[in-house]
């Protein structure tokens, strides 16, 4: 199984190199599928805690080992990454996009999977940083003509700020504990009490950029809006997860005391983020930007749930994290399909999608409902139990619970506003003669739709997986 | 006078380098080949000696003036090999050129092994003096660069000597091992003054602030192979000198003043270098300014001596500083080597360029062309800029294009590298690896490891310094990324055919190798008493 | 027996989800009709078997969510009503929407709606219940927005969803507070929670129920929801969404601190009376029915306020019957009259369709509370309970109920008179078979539903003769006032009785307009402030500003390094001296 861990990281890398070299998109699809398959078999023969691990020495002087492990917390995220990577590759192949784009996607995928699977803090940092350049190139090279340069630079600078702060925190932790083995540090209860708050602050600041947590989010709307569809999908589905995964697993695991001390600050920022992002969304006039901003609100829920520090809160955070990774990519795929056809994403120019393309409108509605946290779909469990966890803490946390619940209401408000502008009303000129949804498009989207429905109706197995994780 | 046995084996690399210099002088056309072969043998000897047991020689009691340990011999080999690279990158290397280069390398090798302040400073001068000639290109500009370098270097050497003298006054010895013990009872003010002057003087070689400003100026005007040498071997010399002095000599008894001085140097370098690099439009001056910032990173682990935690682990600090220096000079060497390979042959260009230089004397026509590189820097040794130029705000923004230079007005601009990846994939790839590595990002892992090395040490000793380094690296990305982007994605006119394929390929492979196996670098830069 | 419980929910849900993918109309119609039919069968089976099934749906460590179904006889009875009404609505829709190209999704959404309602009815776990609760809201959004060409439909649909979801903010919080305090979400296991927590939780949950049931002050979504097709109105008003709020309150009645029930009573009283007046002044057929729903659901709340859940459920069932009948008949009548349903123009002769006339007449009579129809008994049960409770809540509810009884009679009579007795087209119209089945069935139901009083699963207080007389007097009084007005001047609407307030009541006391305006203004201001904070302050000033400042500093640094060798030497000397001085100073100070 250790081989499968390596394969999950290495296959996309090899695929990236080959598909770029040979200019063939299908190689990318094949390698992404291989990575997905390698990850999919990992639950075989699992137990509690780490399921499987590989550990190869690399540079002992700086505590760097090539050490990959998988457990109930990281596996779903890694699988999600592989799935999104695969879907993006299929999308690319279908659209006849440049094979360089496919290669960059695969590079992002490989690095992200390495982040999720990494059991060594130094390797974690390297993998975390490795996401930056390919993602930057995707935005810069293939993004929206008008805004891509600015957005890409902003993305890169923000991200590197986050990752270097995070790195400092990681190294303080390594210096404090004398080891860089993530699992070992978590098992021994994290860093010493003196260093705990410092480590957590540095790590949280770093991860908060990536997550993103208000007010460190301002790279996100620009980058998501400017990125090509597949770029937005990966940004929303994978990159933000790096931040929240790091926050929950690494920051929370390395510095539990610091996390407890800093929790109120995190929670308040998260609550502000939920409300502010939702309110901003109420007046945004561009489809992709709206979806992008909605991520700030959704990730606010994740951070808030984590900040409560309760068992239910952490599971809710993990669940909301994963749900967002399914729902928002779906929204981005659909928004991309709409923009491809209408050649505009401005809400005032859209309308009547329901009449022009019923299937597309139906899916958009489904995704919007999932995003607003409709019970029975994936978005619900995480957000509802964020509220629960905050109520559970009692006292002033109940106010945060109320804010979060109200944020969910605002989410519904702006998503319905979006649906009203896009789907309802008379058919806009932009939608005249709209192309039907092709079979490949359906095939690309349907796994996400199915997963959203499945997680919404049966959240139990996933929550049980989280319960076995190393936290 | 008691005569003592001298361990000639320990000195073998030095002998070989000196012999190479001598032979090169007589080798005529074969000078380049002789230099490369001779210095390679010297490097091999250094490695051979380094692998064996540690050797010491020139003893005064317990203290030795020349030490051949793993780290020193590794660095000696690196000096020699970097010189080989520079020689390989030199298109028309005459006998005197090779002689000077090999002599400088001999200085570097001595520096690596030096165990007392006098040896160190003499070695450093040996490393530097040949460069006075080498940096000077024909023409007024070259002369200005040479003069600037000469005066700056002499001033800093004087400063360092002054510091050494003060330390001698305080301790009665110049041996590092002696300083380590004898400084104990000395007057703290005297020690601090000595430390500050000595380190300030030595920081010149590394181009650390406040003795940094020569670097952009000289690097840009020097021939590119020599710029490569200045940016790599010469900087390594500065780094090694400071590390040796601080680690072997000052850390035990004068760690605090050394730490404070180094912290000031380091923070100032990081701030000034990074910020100024942001607005550079010329590749070489950008790399030069960023090199100043990297000098700050090199010094940062040693600066941690200012904290109690840092003084507790001086060997880790020195190892981190050295490791970073090694990664850094290799990356710089890669960047400059790639640049050298794709820059039009400057020697042949000189003749035509001098003609255009006359036109460039007034800023207006260049500005009206919308050209970004309005000549703005007037370096007449000893004269200030004229007030008319100060009144040109635009002119002051643009970076150090040499006034009336022997380069074409646009030559050396970053935009010139646009689309290099398509026209010259090999040098472009090496350049990309180097630039991305300098910014510390994967997939150029060499740079990432360099950053990890210092951050990991700083995190355990001086978190505030780690955050400053991190902040510097963030700003660094803001100028490295556009540089990389221009090379990779820019659309521009095709550049001439790449030269020096083998040299560029070798340095590229070295960068890849240390990226995949950083432990090799970390092993030999790990030092202990 | 567990199978039937799961089938009860699973069949409509599966039919609903699958139906969204069905393209062919005939298949869609079959699945539309068969799913509620099976649900009806299952609920009848459950009525006798009373299955109780549960498994863990989600385990959050400190608490778990169970998919728990508790089909007690009362729950089964409500499930039967919901299934039956849905079945009839589906049948009705087959012909009602025969020319509609979007029939397939419509039918599927109705089935999903039923499944959601059945979850609410059967769930024994509050979070599981919440799933049905909100899916129902989402389905109502989809159904109300069904008419693509109607400009007001999307707005009305969004309003319906958002207002109910606004209530759900409180509902979710209440559920979470209750779950935290009780350590479980299972309704059957919620034991003693402290009075304060229970009060907070139940008030929050009440607010959610108010939203769902369109009670005061969240009644604003219901009238515009008439933009949906008439069968949808029948569905929402009769046995599903609007009733769900009252139903949930009855389930949670044991948790209520008794003193706080007066809040429910106030809500119920205001809703009953206010909506009654609005119904009396309403200007179109469906408007009268919509406001009457608010008023009638107020009766259910009233029953809750006097802690008599069975009376509430009884009224829920009888209301389901007559309101479904009224809406379906209204659809037929409006179609016959060929109008948009405005009272000013909608006229049919009783003779033009006997079935429609009698269905409407019986439905209105049941609503007004004429014995022996179901409405009479159910209202009597509520007022009887209020009469006997002897609490402040009981007093409020009792008199408000009497007043609402008068109003109910009045607006029923007005509607009946205005629609049937002002002439109209003479030609005879036939009611399509699929639609007439619904009318016949429901007419039958409302006649027999009174029997529940005597032979049903419900425990209601014995009949009070004095009360029955009082109620009859109230009803007759209401008839008399309207009749008097009508006989005096047939050309004029009896609503003139309201005088100057008529226009205000016709628009629901402007609540909708005011709330809409306030919401829009507030949202605009808040969104503007948030944008200013986020995009301007955080992004432009802090983030981009710091970038600009760095670049400016870079230019200054670069400029500062011009000046050749002299400047270089000055810089170096000054720098070295400063550093040396610092080092000396610190060293001396430290030693």
TrEMBL record, chain A:
One of its GO terms (cellular component) is membrane. It comes from the Bacteria. Residues 118-403 form the NADH:quinone oxidoreductase/Mrp antiporter transmembrane domain. It is a multi-pass membrane protein. GO terms for biological process: ATP synthesis coupled electron transport; electron transport coupled proton transport. One of its GO terms (molecular function) is NADH dehydrogenase activity. It is found in: Endomembrane system; Membrane. Keywords: Membrane, Oxidoreductase, Transmembrane, Transmembrane helix. Pfam families: Proton_antipo_M. InterPro entries: NADH_Q_OxRdtase_chainM/4, NADH_UbQ_OxRdtase, ND/Mrp_TM. Its EC number is 1.6.5.-. The chain crosses the membrane at residues 26-42, 72-90, 97-116, 122-143, 155-175, 195-213, 225-242, 262-283, 290-310, 316-338, 359-382, 394-416. Belongs to the complex I subunit 4 family. PANTHER family: NADH-UBIQUINONE OXIDOREDUCTASE CHAIN 4. NCBIfam families: NDH_I_M. This is NADH-quinone oxidoreductase subunit M. It comes from Glycomyces buryatensis.
UniProtKB/TrEMBL annotation, chain C:
One of its GO terms (cellular component) is endomembrane system. Residues 60-106 form the NADH-Ubiquinone oxidoreductase (complex I) chain 5 N-terminal domain. It is found in: Endomembrane system; Membrane. The keyword Chaperone does not apply. It comes from the Bacteria. Residues 123-397 form the NADH:quinone oxidoreductase/Mrp antiporter transmembrane domain. Keywords: Membrane, Transmembrane, Transmembrane helix. It is a multi-pass membrane protein. The chain crosses the membrane at residues 6-22, 34-55, 75-94, 106-123, 169-187, 193-211, 232-254, 260-281, 313-334, 355-376, 396-421, 433-455, 467-487, 565-590. InterPro entries: ND/Mrp_TM, NU5C-like, Proton_antipo_N. Pfam families: Proton_antipo_M, Proton_antipo_N. GO terms for biological process: ATP synthesis coupled electron transport; electron transport coupled proton transport. GO terms for molecular function: NADH dehydrogenase (ubiquinone) activity; NADH dehydrogenase activity. This is NADH-quinone oxidoreductase subunit L. It comes from Glycomyces buryatensis. The lineage of its organism: Bacteria, Bacillati, Actinomycetota, Actinomycetes, Glycomycetales.
